[in-house]
Amino acid sequence: MELISSSANQNFLFTYLVFFFVELLTKGAESSSSEVDRHLEMGRDFLARGQLGDALSHYHAAVEGDNRNYLTYFKRATVYLALGKAKLAIGDLDRAIELNRAFTTARQQRGSVYLKMGDYDNAERDLYVVLQEDPYNEEALYMYDRINPARQQIDLVHDVISRNDHHSAVALLSQLLEVSPWSPEFRELRAQSNLAIGDRLSAVSDFRSVNRLMQDGSDDLTTHIFKLAKLLYELGHAADSLKEIRECLKLDPEHKLCFPFYKKIKKIDKFMNDAETHREAKSYEDCISSAEKVLKNEKEVPMIIFGANQYLCSCNVKSDKYADAITHCNAALKIEKDPSILCDLAEALLGEEMYDDAVRSYQDALELDENLQRAKEGIERAKRLQKQAEKRDYYKILGVTRSATTKEITKAYRKMAQKWHPDNFATNESERKIAEKKFIDIAAAKEVLTDPEKRAQFDNGEDPLDPEGRSNGFRNGNPFQNFQHFQHGSPFQFKFHFS
Asked: Does 225 score more than 60 pLDDT?
């Protein structure tokens, strides 16, 4: 009896343990299934709201929770497609079809993706299987019928490119990309043809698209990033080029092309930024110095040289270095016509009193931009200055530049007044008359150039002391008309004090 009882107890204990573990496993499976369903539900909600990153996170969790559910792979593939990650989507569609060979929807989706990627052989295989199952599937029929015309078109593209007919190649590739917008090959071909016809901005757009399409796993991505960075640099966009080359170095810090190029454009970008900063701060000498460093380090790429000469043109004008400004403005304009540079050139020409040339430069700027107010006002100013040059130039009278400070003007006035005071020429009547005229001009120059309002009028081409103009200073341009009480009517019978 004891043996029987002992055996019964052991069987009962074994049965209880088996039941316990089965129950535990069942509960775990139910818990796991419930968790997967929760992730699928949340992924669906995020997808409906357009929150693709959150949706993808939940579909990742669902796949990890149940890697045998073909629908979960299909749903994650949908998110990948929405994110533009076609290759990753293909991987999930492959797995979904592997788990369920009869899953026609996934096969049709994969055929559609292959068609958009320009992989016509795989697209044809998938869509053929779909049409065997469902011959009246309109969407599948539409895609299937596009495959052979697309094949013929790409053959035609290669033919016109071999004949250097790049305009035709761009047109054909643009049509082809309506069928296969996710093809890096077609976009790169169009980029190269755009480069061949000189449309670099369109080429940049295509190269950017190539890089985006290759971000989901291509081993050749660094090479394409380098191509884009180099093209941007050649366009004169050093900052954008530097940004791209840094992306290359994130993938390969020692890349044989990207690393040396990075060192070069980092330096150029710094000098360019410094020149812009100094120009904005009106530190024109520092602007000139920074731009000269660009030219010292880059002697081949025209648009970078153009940018440096543009700064040298502008900042030399602001520094009254008109001859240098003219040299650099013309150097920039040889590379590319630009209305703002033409206006800077006109300003430099005005500084050199080349009025007719200045007017022509402003007119050239208006031909490029007919609404450019700076050029319109510049033409009128140049004409006024030309008319003014026939009369008195107060800056020349005092021997100062147009950017001279009031302190510098006053100092120059004192020096000139001491030199040409008529009392210094009392023994020679003819010299005294010359001195009187010069002294009148010197006094007039001081009055105009030390009065902000009158100086502004003069800088705009108007003489505030011109009796034919809006004179509000010395009557008839004579600063001594108020000195009639001096003996013999002479304004020079007094001791002059230079204060």
From this structure: yes
Kindly report which listed range (40-54, 141-155, 265-279) carries the lowest average pLDDT score.
Answer: 40-54
Chain centroid to Cα 120, Å, comes to: 37
Q: Is the CA virtual torsion 178, 148, 113, 105 positive or negative?
A: positive
Confidence of residue 314 (pLDDT cuts 50, 70, 90): very high
Answer whether 417's CB lies under 8 Å from 498's CB.
yes
Q: In sequence order, what DSSP letters do the residues of 468-497 get, joined into one string? A: TTT--SSGGG-TTTT-TTSGGG-TTSS---
Angle between helices 258-280 and 284-297 (to 10 degrees): 160
* Alpha-carbon span 468 to 466, nearest angstrom: 5
**Token duo for residue 386:** 């030309």
* Residue 113, C-beta contacts closer than 8 angstroms, at least 6 positions apart: 81, 86, 89, 90, 93, 182
Give the span between the Cα atoms of 103 and 368, in whole angstroms.
61
Residue in 45, 46, 65, 62 with CA at minimum distance from that of residue 54: 46
Q: What is the mean pLDDT of residues 365-376?
A: 95
The CA-to-CA distance between both ends of the chain, in Å, stands at 138
- In 3D space, the residue among 182, 186, 261 whose CA is nearest the CA of residue 227 turns out to be 261
Tokens of 468: 């034919």
Q: Which is more confident, 93 or 25?
A: 93
Are the beta carbons of 269 and 239 closer than 8 angstroms? yes
Tally of CB atoms within 10 A around 56: 20
For 236-261, how does the pLDDT look when each residue is reduced to its tens digit (9 = 90+)?
A: 999 999 999 999 999 899 999 999 99
pLDDT tens figures, 349-359? 998 889 899 99
What number is the average pLDDT over the span 211-222? Answer: 74
- How is residue 273 written in tokens? 């930024």
Name the residue among 236, 302, 222, 291 with its Cα closest to residue 265.
Answer: 236
pLDDT tens for 144-160 read: 999 999 999 999 999 99
Mean pLDDT of 201-209: 90
Q: What is the pLDDT of residue 216?
A: 62
Residue among 54, 101, 104, 55 at smallest CA distance from 75: 55
User: What letter would DSSP give residue 403?
Assistant: T
Q: With contact defined as beta carbons under 8 Å apart, do 258 and 233 qualify?
A: no
CA gap 308, 161 in Å, rounded: 36
Roughly what angle, to the nearest 10 degrees, separates helices 221-234 and 238-251?
Answer: 170
